């Protein structure tokens, strides 16, 4: 069975190698796609259905119900240093979520104004590069649009 | 098992006396150390780290999605 992974944000999908953080650009925790969000107040949605196994204001992981796959969404780079300021959570850790369900509202423009990249790595954790297919990494996407497929 | 991993990572970071602060961030441990030169990268990788990034006294150990759990285990050892 494969899992379709949706874009968590509206913006421009790009190769993850362009992310200014080696953990993501070198796929140390798994392959994925980067989405450069459009500016202004925005929402970030769940990329897959499942359980919120990790939840921080600036990042979250959804683990699929069969436990087979976990997808990380990181809102901006080094944004842990913002300590949650500017991020509003709409769910709690451990919640079940639908694919496309709103998780966080934030403002990528404000993140950029504070000196951080707002690019959002979307990563299939702990799988090989070959597990990804149907990859969109050079097109505009809306939150909830398909970004890639992970084989499981 | 998990505690062993935490202990191995702690040892590779130079032991508890070398730790100023350890903060988990989803997939990595951001470690502020007294002395960055005491870090044993090979031992960190043996302990399961996917990667290590060093910037002086700040060392980021990429451990994957269990970073939060490992950080809790290390805190218990300090």
Summarize the structure.
Chain B: Keywords: Cell membrane, Kinase, Membrane, Phosphotransferase system, Sugar transport, Transferase, Transmembrane, Transmembrane helix, Transport. Chain B: This is PTS sugar transporter. The complex is a heterodimer of chains A (152) and B (78). By secondary structure, chain A is mainly beta.
List the helices and strands and how they pair.
The complex is a heterodimer of chains A (152) and B (78).
Chain A: E1 2-6, E2 11-15, H1 22-25, E3 32-37, E4 42-45, E5 50-56, E6 59-63, E7 70-74, E8 88-89, E9 96-97, E10 102-106, H2 108-113, E11 120-124, E12 132-133, E13 140-141, E14 146-151
Antiparallel strand pairs in A: 1-14, 2-3, 2-13, 3-11, 4-10, 5-6, 5-9, 6-7, 7-11, 8-10, 12-14
Chain B: H1 2-12, E1 19-25, E2 28-33, H2 41-46, E3 51-55, E4 58-62, H3 67-77
Antiparallel strand pairs in B: 1-2, 2-4, 3-4
Helix pairs in contact in B: 1-3
Number of helices of chain A: 2
Tell me which CATH architecture of chain A applies here: Distorted Sandwich
Order of helical and strand elements of chain B: HEEHEEH
* Mean pLDDT across all amino acids of chain B: 92
Largest sheet of chain A: 8 strands, antiparallel
Structural class assignment of chain A = mainly beta
Question: What's the number of structural domains of chain A?
Answer: 1
The domain tally of chain B reads 1
CATH A-level architecture of chain B: 2-Layer Sandwich
The CATH class name of chain A reads Mainly Beta
The largest β sheet of chain B comes out as: 4 strands, antiparallel
Element order of chain A: H for helix, E for strand: EEHEEEEEEEEHEEEE
């Amino acid at each position: 069975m494969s899992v379709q992974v949706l874009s968590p944000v509206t913006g421009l999908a790009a190769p993850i190698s362009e992310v200014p953080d080696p953990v993501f650009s070198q796929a140390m925790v798994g392959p994925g796609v980067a989405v450069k969000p459009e500016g202004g107040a925005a929402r970030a949605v769940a990329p897959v259905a499942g359980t919120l196994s990790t939840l921080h204001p600036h990042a979250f992981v959804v683990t699929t119900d069969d436990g087979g796959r976990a997808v990380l969404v990181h809102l901006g780079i080094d944004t842990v240093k913002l300590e949650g300021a500017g991020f509003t959570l709409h769910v709690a850790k451990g919640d079940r979520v639908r694919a496309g369900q709103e998780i966080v509202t934030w403002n990528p423009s404000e993140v950029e104004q504070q000196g951080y990249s707002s690019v959002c790595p979307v990563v299939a954790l702990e799988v090989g590069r070959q597990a990804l297919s149907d990859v969109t990494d050079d097109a505009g996407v809306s939150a909830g649009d398909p970004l890639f497929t992970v084989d499981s | 098992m998990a505690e062993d991993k935490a202990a191995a990572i702690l040892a590779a970071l130079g032991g508890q006396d070398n730790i100023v602060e350890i903060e988990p961030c989803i997939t990595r441990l951001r470690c502020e150390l007294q002395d960055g030169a005491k870090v044993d990268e090979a031992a960190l990788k043996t302990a399961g780290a996917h990667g290590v990034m060093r910037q002086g006294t700040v060392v980021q150990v990429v451990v994957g999605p269990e970073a939060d759990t490992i950080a809790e285990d290390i805190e218990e050892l300090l």
